Amino acid sequence: MKVLVPVKRVVDANVKVRVKADNTNVDTTNLKMALNPFCEIAVEEAVRLKEAGIATEVVVVSVGPKAVQEQLRTAMALGADRAIHIETDEELVPLSIAKLLKAVQEKEQAQLVIFGKQSIDGDNNQTGQMLAALTDMPQATFASEVKIDGDMITVTREIDGGLQTLKMPLPAIVTVDLRLNEPRYASLPNIMKAKRKPLEIMAVADLGVSLRAHQTVLSVTPPVERKAGIMVSSVEELVDKLKNEAKVI
Amino acid sequence: MTILVLAEHDNVSLKTDTAKVVSAAAAIGGDIHVLVVGADCSAAVSAAQSLAGVSKVLVADAAQYGAQLAENVSKLVVEIAADYEHILAAATSIGKDTLPRVAALLDVAQISEVIEVVSSDTFVRPIYAGNALATVQSLDAKKVMTVRSSAFDVVASTGSAEVVNLSQTIDSKTEFVSQSLTESARPELGNAGIIVSGGRGMGSGENFAILEQLADKLGAAVGASRAAVDAGFVPNDLQVGQTGKIVAPNLYIAVGISGAIQHLAGMKDSKVIVAINKDPEAPIFQVADYGLVADLFEAVPALNNLV
């Protein structure tokens, strides 16, 4: 069984981004970049399926500028077998990414496509569901447990208020939540080995997909900063402030 | 211009998120229809009929829709989409699951987690865990968007919309197996006026009992940081943050929470924030209106006695 894992290069989760002075975008110059944390969990799950003898091949794919190859190498150091880079310098909306992934999936015919539920930059939470719609595959989003039995997959999902379990036939799409697994660290030998694993580069045009603009970002602004608060010295003072100043209790 | 709002409900009751999304729809302007998809969901339908500003409630009540699975619900929405210029849902686990499928089937982009309506085609949404706000103009003929309900007020319940039954029943390859929801007498995180939240500093699940006592005294909901959920202290549905619940109560009391940017993303729009932490350097104090550097195991019981 082949598993396809689409991944994204994002600003590292520990970096607090700033908005550019001209309010056109956030300033990502010289920031530390990383594999999106949810994508890392998806790669880990795919690799565990391979280690368990369920998956036979793990293919990672990313859409973006040349630099995304760094994250594809990271994914291969974590255990993915090969990578596909769809090269573009354009910033694409999730629908366009999903269309490109559909073309890849048609070629690869993976039984399972496993995604991060969202990227921590755009916070869109769309691409997995959109690929599922375009390929008419069943989907299980926000997975915290994945079990494969023959040609069926059972997924426990984190939903508002608790957990839900769904069962569906493969091929299927899964998007992962935080608690599915704890990704491993890439070992130095595996990082070295990843450099020799196959990485195929394609242009958007090679996939025969026509994309169009769907939206214009008019501005990107910083959120309103909260006014600095005060430190209180005791619980009594805190209760007094909440009752008499803020009047919230 | 007609707007379709996908109702957020659990078949038994309509969630207040729906009344907040209708409020966002009213800000866009136009005729508003609400679609209730479920099984034996008549109570939710009646509640939707009373939402002010709603002229029609479309109802698809069939066994196939009981679990509100994205696969067939999205196809149903697409079948009726021709009548609508805007399709909205709350950015809840159901809305986030379903709406991107609707958008993709309609070949339009989705705008996620809208917090402000600028005009009928321009919306504001947070990106980078709320560290930046993007104002986005849609170029698509249909605008499909999820709405962050904490950013909108509820509409009144003074309406009396007519009901239109939809007869389409669409099957799904996905099968619902089971669901386990946390039973709690406390208010839901999304609707609570006060939230008492605990972090890694709580040390264990048992220690959350002191927060629960305080919450019960204040009529508050209990929340948690990702660290507390990951450590297994409390279930995932209590998580407040970038990828958990986004809340904006009148009072948010953060106890033993350091204040990672991902957590702040979920609560920094609260009206009043209180932070109790023994580490004076904890970033949570930078967003707190009232900060107290103290051992939470002494401060929380003392607070409980005084409120």
From TrEMBL, chain A:
<dbReference type="InterPro" id="IPR033948">
    <property type="entry name" value="ETF_beta_N"/>
</dbReference>
<keyword id="KW-0813">Transport</keyword>
<dbReference type="GO" id="GO:0009055">
    <property type="term" value="F:electron transfer activity"/>
</dbReference>
<dbReference type="InterPro" id="IPR012255">
    <property type="entry name" value="ETF_b"/>
</dbReference>
<comment type="subunit">
    <text>Heterodimer of an alpha and a beta subunit.</text>
</comment>
<dbReference type="InterPro" id="IPR014729">
    <property type="entry name" value="Rossmann-like_a/b/a_fold"/>
</dbReference>
<protein>
    <recommendedName>
        <fullName>Electron transfer flavoprotein subunit beta</fullName>
    </recommendedName>
</protein>
<dbReference type="InterPro" id="IPR000049">
    <property type="entry name" value="ET-Flavoprotein_bsu_CS"/>
</dbReference>
<comment type="similarity">
    <text>Belongs to the ETF beta-subunit/FixA family.</text>
</comment>
<comment type="function">
    <text>The electron transfer flavoprotein serves as a specific electron acceptor for other dehydrogenases. It transfers the electrons to the main respiratory chain via ETF-ubiquinone oxidoreductase (ETF dehydrogenase).</text>
</comment>
<feature type="domain" description="Electron transfer flavoprotein alpha/beta-subunit N-terminal">
    <location>
        <begin position="23"/>
        <end position="211"/>
    </location>
</feature>
<keyword id="KW-0249">Electron transport</keyword>
<dbReference type="Pfam" id="PF01012">
    <property type="entry name" value="ETF"/>
</dbReference>
<dbReference type="GO" id="GO:0046395">
    <property type="term" value="P:carboxylic acid catabolic process"/>
</dbReference>
<dbReference type="InterPro" id="IPR014730">
    <property type="entry name" value="ETF_a/b_N"/>
</dbReference>
